[in-house]
Structures are given as structure tokens and as C-alpha cells.
Amino acid sequence: MKHPILVLIGMGLMWAMLVPTTSISTTPDSQIEHGKYLVMHVAMCVQCHTPHTEHGELDLSRLLQGAPIPVKSPFPSQTWAFEAPKLAGLPGGWTEADLVRLLQTGKGPRDQAPRPPMPPFRLTKEDATAIAAYLKSLQ
Fold first, then answer.
1. What are the pLDDT digits (tens) for 17-27?
2. How many domains is the chain built from?
3. Which of 12, 28, 51, 134 could hold 67 in an S-S bridge, CB 3.0 to 4.6 Å?
4. What pTM value is reported for the model?
5. Is 16 within the bounds of a domain?
6. Does 42 fall in a domain?
7. Which domain does 54 fall in, by range?
8. Does 131 reside within a domain?
């Protein structure tokens, strides 16, 4: 008779091959939720692109509507952005493809990198696409 443990392991492996694996859903709603998570908690876009109240808290009533950069350049000679542009709704002629390219390569539609303090992101296509979908969904 075969060893009972080997039989159980073999049965478990067969069962694992028959059960479908779960993967990240790519429905539009789940993609937008993933983009929101990245914007709010990972890439932290919300910190510069959303105005702050007089108490330093994010003014969520103006979420991603553009804002003055909350920090000054540590290097006086460095070219520093004074204002973070509006992102909600992808204004200013930006397309989702433009934003995906920026978030993947660090280069905008005119092949220029944004001025600091914008980090030179190198996101995956999936994450960059999710962020673009989320921002476009904000009207």
C-alpha cells in the first residue's frame, strides 16, 4: 500500500490544479478603485495636488484640483515647481495615454520630465493605467 501522506499530497495537488486561481480583477470599477488606492496611499499624489486647509489638513472638498507645492526646494538653484496642476478629470489636454507614459517613463507628452518635487515614477503599465482611469473618473 502507498504511503497515506503521499496519497493526500497527490490528491491536494490534483485539487489545486482543478480549482481556478484568483487574479486581480480588471473590471473598470476595480481598476478605478486600485487607481484611487495608489493615488491616495502609495504614490501620494493627493499630498501635492490637493489644497491644504489653514491647519495643514487636506481639503478633500477640492480633491486633486491643483495646489501650491507645500514644500520649498532644498536647493535654491534647482528649478522647482511652485504649483501642482489639477489632476481630477485629466485636464489640460492630457490623455490617459499621456499620463500612463509619464508614470511609466518619467516623461510627459513633449518628452520632458516634470519639475521637482514630482518624482520620476517608473510604475507598471497596470498601475499607471489604473491611476489614469481613476483620475479620469473624477469630474
1. 343 333 445 57
2. 1
3. 51
4. 0.77
5. no
6. yes
7. 25-137
8. yes
